[in-house]
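Step 1: inspect the first sequence and its C-alpha cells.
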Amino acid sequence: MDEFPKIFTVDGGVFLGQDPKSSLSACAEDIVKIMDNNNIDMAIAASLRSVFGSQAEGNREILDSLKGFRQRLMPMAALSPLSFVAGKGTVKSLAKEGFKIIGAFPFYQSWPAGIRVFRKMAEEISEAGLALQVAVGNWEGLTAVACCLGGMDMPVLIRWVRGGGYLYLTEEIALAHEYGNLYFDVGNMTTVGGIAKLCSEIGADRLYISSNMPLVYERSVYYRVYAEELSFEERKKVCGVTLSKILNL
C-alpha cells in the first residue's frame, strides 16, 4: 500500500486475547506489529474474553493489556443486554474507567437487537456521552439495530463481523437516509465499486473500516478501501476522519 499517499488510518475493530472457537489469538504487541506493517495508525480494541466469556474480566483485561499502547490502541468495553439492568450505574462506571466507546455483539452472543433492554442500555450510553458500536452479521441484525437505535442522539457504528456486504448495500443506503446517527463499516464490502457507491449515496463521512483481526485476514480488508476508485478526500474520511471525529482522536 506504499504507492498511496499516507493517510491517517483507524481500524474500527480489532480483538485481543484467545478466540474460544479456534487457535487464533493476539496480544497488543501482535496487533501493533500488524498495524505497522499495514500503515494503520490507531485501532479500537476489545477483549475476546469480554465477548465470549466474562464481560467484567474481559473489560478489565483490555484496560490492563493496553497500558503502554494507548497512543495506538483505544480500549472498547463490551456490554451485553443479557447482563444489563438499567439504573445500576454500569455505563457510568465504564466511562469513569476511561472507555469512550461501548461494543455490543448480538451476532456473537445470539440475542435479538430489537429488544427493549438494549434500547435502555443505549439510552444510558448516550447519556454518558459515549459512542456505541454494534456488531452484526445478517439482514435481520442490521435492520433490527437501525429500527431500535436509529434517530437517537448518539453515534451508532454498525460493524460487520461477517462477509457479504454487497448483499446489504441498498438496505444501508435506505437506513442511512432515514437515520442520520448511523455509521457503516465497509470492511466486508467485497464487491468492487460498493464502497464508492456508498460514498456517492450517503457520503464518505458516514463510513469507516473494521478488520476484525485476528479473526479475519486484515490486509484483505484494508486493500478493499485502497482498491476503490475514491477521491483523496473520500479515502481520508473512510480510513480515519469519520472515526476521529466521533471519538475525538
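Step 2: inspect the second sequence and its C-alpha cells, then contrast the two.
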Amino acid sequence: MLGLLLLILSIYCFQKGKFYPSLMLFFLFVTNGFQVIPVNWLMFGLPLDKGSDLGILYTAVLFVMNRRRMKLITQRFPVFKLSGYLILFVLADVAYSLFILDYSLANVLQVFRPYLIFLIVPVFFGVPQDDLKKALNSVAFITVFQSVLFLLQIASGITILLSASGDANVHTGLVEGTSYMRFYNAPMFLNAALFYFLFVYRFKNTTLKYLVWGILFLTVIGPMHRSLMLTIIAVISVYLLLKKSSGKGALYLSAIGLGIYALSFIDVVGNRLNDAFTDMYATFNSNLSVQYIDINDNNLTFRVGHFIERFQYVIQSFDRWLFGIGMISDNAAYAARLPFQFGLVSETTGRVAQIDTGDITWSPLMLNLGIFGAAFYFFLFVRYMIFFYRKTSASAYAVVGFLLILASFLTSMAGTELMSTGFRTMVLLLMVIAAKDYWSRMRNSQIQKKYYAA
C-alpha cells in the first residue's frame, strides 16, 4: 500500500500548490523507485505491475483536473494537438482490438496504458517554471548518483542498481571473448542527464563539472552498447557543428575525436566499436530477404530480419496496415498463433517472443499500431524535434530535447527507448519548459517594444 499512499500524497501536494514534491514523487513512480527502491515495496497490495503504473494514474487524475488548460496550450503551441491525435488513434485501436478482434480487456489495457502519459502536458503547464526546472535538475543529479552505482557494479561484479523497466531481475552477460561483465540496467534518464549537464547546467566548480561529465560518459560506455556509444558521439558532434562558433566547434570536436581515439586503445571498447562497423558492413552487403537472412550472423542482421518479417506480415491486409494486430502483448493467447521465427526465446514459455522485444522499436510499434500508426508516431517525434530546434535560441532546454529525440531515433533499431514511458515523459517535460521559456521571452520582447515606443 506504500505506492497508493504516495500516489495520494503526490496528488494532494499538487492540488495544494506544493508542485516540487509532487513532481519528485511522480518521477519516483516513472523510474520505478529511481531504480533504487524495490518495485515490490511500492506495489505491495496493489493489483498493478510496475511503479510506472502509478505515474500513469497520477497523469490521468491530474489531467481530468487540468484538462481545461489544454485549449489555451494548443492555441499557443499547436504541436501539442498531435499528442491528442495520437491518443485518439490509439483509442480507435483499442476499440478495434476489443470489438473486432475480441481480445481481453486486461491485455488491451496492458498495452494501451503507457500512451496515457501523453496526457501529462496540461499538468506540466500548470506547474510554475521554477518548479519544473528544479525537478528536472534534481532528476539529473539523481541520475548521476545512479550512474555511480552502475559503475560500482562493473567494478564489483555485483548488481546494485535495479532495472529501469521495473523487472525483478537484472540481465547481465559477458562481452564475447572477455571477462567483462555487462549490466543491462543503465539509469533511465542517462542521455537526458548527459545533455543537461553539457548544455544547460552552469557549474560553479570546474572540478565538479569534469567529475560529473566523466561519470556520465563512463556510464554511457559501461554497458558496451555499440549503438549508444556511436550515437552519443554523433549527436553531440551534430549539435556542435550546427550551433557552436567555428572556433569553439573545432575545439570541442577535436576533444571528442581525441577522446574516442584514446578509448579505442582499451581492448574491450575498441573491439566493440570495430565489431559495430563490421556488423553494419556484413548486414548491408548481404541478401536482406527473410528466407536468406541468418539471424545468428550478428545482432544487426537479427534486428533487420525481425523487422522485415513482421513488416511483411502486417502489409498482407488493409486492417493490419491501419491497426496492425491490435493492442496485445506476448501474454495474450492470440500471440501463440503468430508465425514469426525471428525473436528471442522466452524464458517462461520456451517459444520465440512474437511481439515483445527489447531489441528494436519499430517491430512492436508496427504490430500494435499498424503501418499508419507507426508512421504517425514517427511523424509526431519528428515534429517534436522541429519544435525543439526552433526554440533553441530561446531555451537551452530545447537543445536537450532535440538531442534526446535524435539519439533515440538513431538507436531505435537497437532498443525500445523511443516508445518507453520514461522517454515520453522527459520529452514532454522538456517541451513544456522550452515552450514556457519561449513564451516568456516573447512577452518580454513585446513589453520592451511597448516601452521604447512610448
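Step 3: confirm your contrast with the notes below.
The first strand starts at residue 172 and ends at 174. The radius of gyration is 22 Å.
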